[in-house]
Records
---
Amino acid sequence: MHPSNVKIETPCRMHITLIDENGELSRVDGGIGVSLEKPQVVMEGKLEGALVVEGVQKDLVTSLAKSFFDHYSLEEGAYLKVYETIPEHVGLGSKTQLSLATSTLLSKLHGIKATTRELAHIMGRGGTSGIGVAAFEDGGFIIDGGHSFGRDKEKQEFLPSRASKAKPAPILAKYNLPDEWYWVVTIPNVQRGASGEEEVNIFQKYCPIPSEDVGKLCRIIFMMTLPAIMERDIEVFGQSLTKMISLGFKKIELELQHPIIKNLLNTLLENNAKGVGMSSFGPTTFAITEGKKRAENLMKTASDLLTEKEISGRFFITPTRNKGVLIEET
């Protein structure tokens, strides 16, 4: 029996870095990222005779719902209320979470049995990074294994998720991070991260990344980041994140950003952040520290800098979300 009402609350994700945009080993992409408690997508739905969408980003949700119905050759029928969404095109994976929330909710209402990964592929998400899909599934700190690469492989060229038809990448590892480790998230109101054709062009222009950078990045991940998680060593964990911003595709993403981003990262480090970085193509930046009070101080540092530069912004303090989507069916 199908539920008459479904409510969904998703995490958001920060994409810390792509691992391998070189491809010499017949595999590309791979990535690491983390799931956050906020901002989030919150939406609710029930069956209706027609498709009606209310709330925030209703045009996008309407389009996503239509894509779902078209794929399954269903008559359009649902009432959807969208209470909260994630800011668009700032590097927090808003489209993936909204796509998965919409398709999961509709599949529950219409009695369609589909996995999250199947729905992600149907909705055209996860073609480069598997972090957003994994954040939706289970949360935590995530490493994905990318895609096979080359002639007759899953990917034949370097492309962002929206331009790739590859399936979501396999998850190699998922770790829970301590509740007392806080992320300080800043979204400066500057030019938003690359999307659309611009994003495709950046991949085409700058890839392949030198194999030396990929090697250094892998060494950092496996000899700093992961041991630090296992040993609950926030000092080394933070240092590893900071090292990543000067390597590989992340270095390119950062160089294409507004100058305030590097300024902000350096200022946060000078004020005792354990580590810093930029999510995806930005402009969202993050710092990590231990304890809520330290996090609040870092958020004030970020706010003061943006105010001094006459740039507005949004700020969040959040722990890692060590669980995935929450679904209530009644």
Note: The chain has a mean pLDDT of 94.
---
Amino acid sequence: MVQNKLDFKGVQEKAKELDFPGSVLEFFEGLMGQPYGGFPEPLRSDALRDRRKMDKRPGLYLDPFDFDKARKSLSEKYGNISETDLASYAMYPKVFEDYRKWITTYGDLSVLPTKYFLAKPELGEEFEVELEKGKRLIIRLLAVGPLSEQTGQREVFFEMNGEGRVIAVDDRKAAVENVSRPKADPSDSSQCGAPMSGVVVELRVKNGASVNKGDPLAVLSAMKMEMVVSAPHSGKVADVTVKEGDSVNGGDLLVKIGK
């Protein structure tokens, strides 16, 4: 609402045209249950349009889930799978897949103190990591080397239980580029802009594709919230100005649609 300069009345009046975050639409569907006093109408119907409405317990509407099949598939892919892993995958499949990719790349970091998971230690700072009962690592950061322009990495020198070690670490901040994107003209319905800042996680259309009003064009993600950007009118896609993985700011042009 703040990004698009809307107040409560504006949301009500433009609900049929606005792209609401996926979490808001799921709430209006009834996936979180029924609010006391019911859903506000006509806001709910205008926001959902042709999406389903659940007026009973959400579980009654869900498709059956084959836990045995999922357990077998996950075990073949990742090895030993716990009941917690299975439940996590059943509820949040994409989040679980991302989590497993992280574990494959970096190992189990759950043993790392939260402070050092979120931020690097200071030079000369010493901290402990308990791998298991009776097995403890004492780590001290010694130095951080210069950036390698060829690899985008830095050598990190540290002591582990008194022994000198060195590893190469990707410097992600050094690889960040500032990209200036054209802004969508809000008065031109053929220009579809990003309703919020985020990352383009999925493109649903290509240049030359025919779309109908309300068809999904792209999916943005920001702070674990996803939003589908839909076509404001029917026509042909004239230009897709972004690609999957791009970071965008609110108002940045995503897609142009000809009539």
Note: DSSP finds seven helices and twelve strands in the chain.
---
Amino acid sequence: MKLQGLRVTIRPMARSDLDAMIQWRPFADPLYQPFDFPRWDKGEHVRWFEWRSRDTSRRLYAVDDERHTVIGSLTLREIDGRRSARLGITIGADFVSQGYGTEALRLFLDYYFETLGFAQMILDVAATNLRAVHTYSSLGFRQVGQHYRVADHPSYQRLRKEPRYRHLRPMFRRQGTQQQVLFYDMALTREEWLATMQDKADQGAAALGGL
């Protein structure tokens, strides 16, 4: 399996990809630091990869850019026949805000629904990750629920206290002795994906017709 887009390629992850992923620069903005690639040693990453690769309820993919640089990873977990799977995607700090993540998701969603034949994709995303929430919504994902998780990453302290992040404070709560952060549960069905793509195609055709 190899998916080729205009700028990105999606393929099964290889153990050798870990060498590139370990070199990804951490995010400077505390807003995104909870989603950094783990700062483990090489042995820990190899054990993680081998363990996940043996798990039949998971699939691991690497995302390459047009220079054949590994810029991201994409995972499916909780695979339930052809009914659904849970998506995870990570793009390295040096490659975000360039459209790579959106292109990779569009490419993969076509493969997921039309080739693999899944009925629905589900995911969860931190409400504070505004960029990711916007991207998922633009691709047709809808919020189907929400839950809280322990806000144990050090960067969450800065998000709760620094004035420039005051708009994020409603996304945190105290539960007993714990600080918790809000996560959204989102879903997208095959029918919703096809309708979203048809709408975008119609909008593109209308724009061309107006020239």
Note: The chain is about 35% helix and 30% strand.
